[in-house]
Amino acid sequence: MAYQSLRLEYLQIPPVSRAYTTACVLTTAAVQLELITPFQLYFNPELIFKHFQAPFLPWVLMGFSLLLGNSIIVDLLGIAVGHIYFFLEDVFPNQPGGIRILKTPSILKAIFDTPDEDPNYNPLPEERPGGFAWGEGQRLGG
């Protein structure tokens, strides 16, 4: 009798929530029974590098938007812009007679590029780690 009521309650859960809850319970049971380790759950190089490639990420995100009932227009625009950028940045310049159309504005280079290191730069004492003159080459006992 209790089994039937539990089964009915389980079947009344919405399908997506039921699938997620079932996956959580089965995963927890598999870890507790030591069929899999938590490390295998968090880091699976074969799954990451062979089966799920980064180029599929926009399509997966669009699928989630579709499942959640959101508009996929923004996702499709992002995918289109990404394809155009990839073509103009990586494909077209490598073609015979191709040129690099997209260039970083010089103002952004000036703001974000790291300056060249000055070999004559001597940091102030408060900029040194711990305030000590590390690495000045003084010999011990000499």
TrEMBL record:
Biased composition of type Gly residues is found at 132-142
Q: How does it sit in the membrane?
A: Multi-pass membrane protein
Instruction: Show the segment(s) annotated as Disordered.
Output: 118-142
Query: What Pfam families does the annotation carry?
Result: DER1 (PF04511)
Q: Does the keyword Disulfide bond apply?
A: no
Q: Where does it reside?
A: Endoplasmic reticulum membrane
GO CC annotation: what is one? endoplasmic reticulum membrane
UniProt record similarity statement: Belongs to the derlin family.
**What job does this protein perform?**
Functional component of endoplasmic reticulum-associated degradation (ERAD) for misfolded lumenal proteins. May act by forming a channel that allows the retrotranslocation of misfolded proteins into the cytosol where they are ubiquitinated and degraded by the proteasome.
What is the protein's given name?
Derlin
